[in-house]
C-alpha cells in the first residue's frame, strides 16, 4: 500500500524531479516507510511506501531488465504466481511477479493473472511505453491529467494540484452530482482536466500520449446459473475461505473493522476459522441517544468468535474538532457520512495494526440493498429505478438552480451494465459496482485509512467471490423481502450467534442531530462560504440548517452543503483547514 506518481512526456523531454518530489510530498501520508524516485528517458516514477509485505527488500521502484514498476496496493496471489510460472524474483515483494509476467507474456496476461487491489505504473524502456493499470473493482485509485509535454498520474488528485500541474477548477456537472448523489461518476472527476483510470482499465502511453486502452471486467458475464442452495453454499464457502486467506497475507499485524451487520460479521467468522490467535476487531458507536448503535451486535459477534474487541465512541465534540481534516482527506469528494466513523476507526486501529479487513462489497455482490428489491419489480408493480431522486429534490428552493443533468452518469452506467441475459437485479448490482462502489465506498475507505497510513482490504471484492455470487439465481439473493439470502444462510450455518435473518438495520451516522443542535450558528457560516454561495441561496441555507434535526431529507441536504463548504475550502480555495469547524469556516 503506497502512493505513486509520475510523468510520461514526449520523447526528448526529461521529467522535472522537483515536480516528482512535490507530488510525493502531497502523498506522504500514504507511505511513511520509504521513498523512491526513478527517471529514465522521458518517464519519471515516484513512490511513497507503506511497508506491508517483504519489509526488508520490498522497496520500490522494482526493476527487471529494461522494465521498472511502482505500485499502490497488494497482489494477494503473488506466491501462487511465482510458483505457477517458475518466476525467479530478486525480492519477496508481492509486486515483483507481475513485473516478470509483463516481460514474459505482455500486459494483458499480467493484468488477467493478478488477484488483488492495485494501481500500477510500469515503464518499459525497450518499447518506450508506460503502462498504467488498475484493479477490476477500483479498490485502489489512480488519476491522470494532460500536462505540458505529456501526461501526469498520481494516486490522488491533490498531488497533481499541489505540484501545480493542474489548476483546481470545479466542473459544474460533477458538482451537481456530488450535491445530489454524494459522489461523482465516470472517468471525469470534479476537477477539470483530471480523470480517473477506470476500474479494471489498462492505459498505454507512448511519446506523451495515450495510445491504447483495455478493460478487465470485475463481474462475470451472463445471467443467473441454476444451482441448488446447498451447492451455492459450498461454492461460497470455498471461494470466501480462499479470499480471506489471501487477504490476510501480511508481514505486519492485521485486524478487522466490525459493525453489527452481516458483511463484516462474515469476514470475522472466516478470519476466526483461519487464525489460531484472536482476531483484533474495531467498532465505532456514537454519543447521540437513539442513534443506530451497532455496539451490542458487534460485541456479541466478537464474543462468539473469541475476538479481541475494541469499541470507540465518536462524540459530537470530536466531530466538530476533526471534521475539516476528515473532509480534506476526500480530495476526490464523496460526501458519505460514513467517512466520519471510518476516519476515527482508522486512527484508533493504527495504534495496534497496520492492515484491516472490512466488509465492503457484500451488499453489492449478494443483493443487500432495499433499492434492489424495488428495481426487481416492473414499473406497473411500483418498481423504481435506484437513485431516482437526489438529495435536493426533497428540499426545495435551497439551490439557486435545480440540477438537471445530475443523473446522466448513473443513467450511462445503467445502460452499460444492463447486458443481455442479466436480470433487473443483476443490472442494478452491476450499475452500483461500476460507480457507487469505487467512487463512494472504496474512495471513503482508501482516503480515511490512508490518512493514517493504514491499509484496508476487502475480501468480498475478489474475482473468485464474484464468480460464486454474482450469477446466483435472484432467489438466492433476495427472498421474502430479505436481501443477501445466501450470505445469511452461510452465516446461519457458520455463525448462528449473529442472528443473520434478523431485519437489516442499516448504518446511519447522526449528522442531522449534530447539525440541528448547532444549526443557528453553523448555517450562516456555511452559507457564506464561496463554494456554497455560488450554488445556494444564503437565507435558504441558514433556514435549512436551523431545521435540520428531525427530518432526514433536510439533514442529508445540510450535510452535503457542509461537506462541500469544507471540501471547497481545502481543495479549490487551497486554504488552511487545520482548525476545528468553527475556526475553519469562520476564518
Describe the structure.
By secondary structure, the chain is an alpha+beta fold. 41% of the residues lie in helices and 17% in strands. The chain has helices at 17-26, 78-84, 96-105, 107-113, 157-162, 172-181, 229-247, 262-274, 295-304, 316-329, 339-349, 362-366, 370-376, 408-417, 424-450, 463-469, 485-494, 511-517, 519-527, 530-535, 538-546, 552-571, 581-586; strands at residues 2-9, 34-40, 43-49, 62-64, 67-75, 116-124, 129-134, 143-147, 150-154, 194-196, 201-206, 209-215, 254-257, 280-286, 308-314, 355-357, 455-457. The strands form three sheets. Strands 2-3-1-9-8-10 form a six-stranded antiparallel β-sheet. A six-stranded antiparallel β-sheet has the order 4-5-6-7-11-12. Helix 3 (96-105) packs across helix 4 (107-113) and helix 18 (511-517) crosses helix 22.
Features:
alpha+beta, six-stranded antiparallel β-sheet, 17 strands
What's a quick, concise take on this entry?
By secondary structure, the chain is of the alpha+beta class. It has helices at residues 17-26, 78-84, 96-105, 107-113, 157-162, 172-181, 229-247, 262-274, 295-304, 316-329, 339-349, 362-366, 370-376, 408-417, 424-450, 463-469, 485-494, 511-517, 519-527, 530-535, 538-546, 552-571, 581-586; strands at residues 2-9, 34-40, 43-49, 62-64, 67-75, 116-124, 129-134, 143-147, 150-154, 194-196, 201-206, 209-215, 254-257, 280-286, 308-314, 355-357, 455-457. β6 and β7 form a beta hairpin.
Amino acid at each position: 500500500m503506497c502512493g505513486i506518481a509520475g510523468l510520461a512526456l514526449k520523447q526528448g523531454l526529461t521529467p522535472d524531479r522537483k515536480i516528482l518530489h512535490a507530488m510525493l510530498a502531497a502523498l506522504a501520508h500514504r507511505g511513511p516507510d520509504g521513498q523512491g524516485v526513478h527517471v529514465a528517458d522521458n518517464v519519471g516514477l515516484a513512490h511513497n511506501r507503506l511497508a506491508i509485505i517483504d519489509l526488508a527488500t520490498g522497496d520500490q521502484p522494482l526493476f527487471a531488465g529494461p522494465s521498472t514498476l511502482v505500485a499502490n496496493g497488494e497482489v494477494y496471489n503473488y506466491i501462487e504466481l511465482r510458483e505457477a510460472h517458475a518466476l525467479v524474483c530478486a525480492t519477496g515483494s508481492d509486486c515483483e511477479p507481475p513485473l516478470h509476467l509483463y516481460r514474459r507474456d505482455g500486459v494483458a496476461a499480467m493484468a488477467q493473472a493478478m488477484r488483488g487491489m492495485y494501481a500500477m505504473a510500469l515503464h518499459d524502456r525497450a518499447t518506450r511505453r508506460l503502462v498504467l493499470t488498475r484493479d477490476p473493482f477500483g479498490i485502489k485509485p489512480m488519476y491522470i491529467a494532460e500536462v505540458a509535454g505529456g501526461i501526469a498520474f498520481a494516486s490522488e488528485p491533490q498531488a497533481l494540484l499541489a505540484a501545480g500541474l493542474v489548476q483546481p477548477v470545479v466542473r459544474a456537472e460533477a458538482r451537481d452530482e456530488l450535491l445530489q448523489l454524494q459522489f461523482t461518476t465516470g472517468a471525469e472527476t470534479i476537477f477539470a482536466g483530471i480523470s480517473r483510470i477506470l476500474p479494471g482499465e489498462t492505459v498505454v502511453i507512448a511519446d506523451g500520449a495515450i495510445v491504447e486502452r483495455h478493460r478487465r471486467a470485475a463481474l462475470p458475464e451472463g445471467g443467473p446459473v441454476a444451482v441448488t442452495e446447498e451447492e451455492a453454499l459450498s461454492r461460497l464457502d470455498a471461494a470466501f475461505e480462499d479470499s480471506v486467506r489471501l487477504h490476510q497475507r501480511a508481514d505486519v499485524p492485521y485486524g478487522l473493522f466490525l459493525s453489527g451487520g452481516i458483511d463484516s460479521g462474515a469476514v470475522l467468522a472466516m478470519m476466526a476459522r483461519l487464525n489460531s490467535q484472536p482476531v483484533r476487531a474495531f467498532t465505532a458507536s456514537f454519543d447521540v441517544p437513539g442513534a443506530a448503535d451497532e455496539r451490542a451486535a458487534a460485541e456479541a459477534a466478537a464474543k462468539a468468535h473469541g475476538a479481541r474487541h475494541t469499541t470507540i465512541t465518536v462524540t459530537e465534540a470530536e466531530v466538530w474538532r476533526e471534521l475539516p481534516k476528515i473532509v480534506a482527506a476526500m480530495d476526490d469528494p464523496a460526501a458519505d457520512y460514513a467517512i466520519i466513523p471510518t476516519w476515527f476507526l482508522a486512527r484508533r486501529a493504527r495504534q495496534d495494526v497496520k492492515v484491516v479487513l472490512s466488509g465492503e462489497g457484500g451488499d453489492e455482490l449478494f443483493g443487500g440493498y432495499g433499492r434492489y428489491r424495488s428495481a426487481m419489480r416492473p414499473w406497473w408493480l411500483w418498481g423504481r429505478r435506484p437513485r431516482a431522486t437526489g438529495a435536493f429534490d426533497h428540499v426545495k428552493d435551497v439551490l439557486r438552480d435545480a440540477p438537471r443533468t445530475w443523473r446522466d452518469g448513473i443513467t450511462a452506467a445503467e445502460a452499460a451494465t444492463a447486458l443481455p441475459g442479466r436480470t433487473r437485479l443483476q443490472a442494478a448490482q452491476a450499475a452500483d459496482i461500476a460507480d457507487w462502489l469505487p467512487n463512494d465506498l472504496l474512495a471513503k475507505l482508501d482516503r480515511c485509512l490512508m490518512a493514517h497510513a493504514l491499509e484496508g482490504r476487502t475480501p468480498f471484492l475478489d474475482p473468485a467471490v464474484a464468480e460464486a455470487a454474482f450469477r446466483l439465481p435472484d432467489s438466492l439473493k433476495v427472498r421474502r423481502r430479505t436481501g443477501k439470502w445466501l450470505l445469511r444462510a452461510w452465516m446461519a450455518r457458520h455463525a448462528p450467534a449473529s442472528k443473520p435473518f434478523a431485519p437489516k438495520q442499516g448504518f446511519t451516522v447522526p449528522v442531522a442531530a449534530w447539525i440541528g443542535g448547532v444549526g443557528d450558528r453553523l448555517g450562516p457560516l456555511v452559507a457564506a462560504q464561496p463554494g456554497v454561495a455560488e450554488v445556494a441561496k444564503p437565507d435558504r441555507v441558514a433556514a435549512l440548517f436551523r431545521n435540520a434535526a428531525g427530518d432526514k431529507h433536510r439533514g442529508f441536504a445540510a450535510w452535503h452543503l457542509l461537506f462541500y463548504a469544507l471540501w471547497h475550502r481545502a481543495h479549490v480555495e487551497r486554504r488552511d483547514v487545520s482548525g476545528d469547524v468553527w475556526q475553519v469556516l469562520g476564518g
